[in-house]
Amino acid sequence: MRGPIMRFFLNEDINFLVTNRLPRRFATQLVGRIARIEHPLIAKPSLALWKFFAGVDLSDARTTRFKSLRDGFVRPLRDGARAFDTDPDSIASPCDALVGAYGRIEDDRLYQVKGFPYRLGDLIPDPNLVERFRDGSFVTLRLTAGMYHRFHAPTDIAVEGVTYLSGDCWNVNPIALKRIERLFCRNERAVIEARTLVSGRPLLIVPVAAILVASIRLHCLDTERTLREHGPGRRACAARIGKGEEMGWFEHGSTILLFLPRGMTLSGHLVEGQAIRAGEVIGRTG
Q: Model pTM?
């Protein structure tokens, strides 16, 4: 039963229509409210639909009993479920994800998918940051709706600032990325400025929100409020986060863009579409 239904919704035209041609902000706010409802008459069918359509694997979850759909989205894992590489010179994936576009930043140009370029300056508002990562490298990490939604420090870092940019909430799946130009630059996002503690080199982590729920919470600010509730603009930080320590979470599937400056390198084993887990090595500091 699940197979034919999923094939129907994965048809590109139908998927794009269902996920992007409806009122995105209204749908996102509505699902956000539904996701928080703990009454069994709402929570149980919501969780059942999520598990059915998202293909959720709860084998490493700390618990499989959730009070609401939101509880399922932001579930923590059992202790030790993700092992982060201990080499201080390695860069680990901050999250469970599917690898999207990756490679060298050509001057300040990079790609959301093949043939769809965008400018780093359109994603990041600070021209000084653009200069730091010009001719560097990037990797796109897409979290699907059924994945573990928390993200972690890819190496030992000091977070120096967070800039929140309000925006749209387009779906960030490959179907939308092939149809909407500069999609990441349109969506709600956070620009997390960091430096590695070992070498002092800059590192940029950009969580991008997507349709439905679309909330981002960060420990270096506070997790009681979403970034949207904090409001737009830059906030200075002085937070030290050890490799593998939790940085925050999404309340639905989305994307993290990781930027490395010149001199840092991405791992040669990355393949577009590859599933990776938080803690796996995806680059090196030198």
A: 0.87
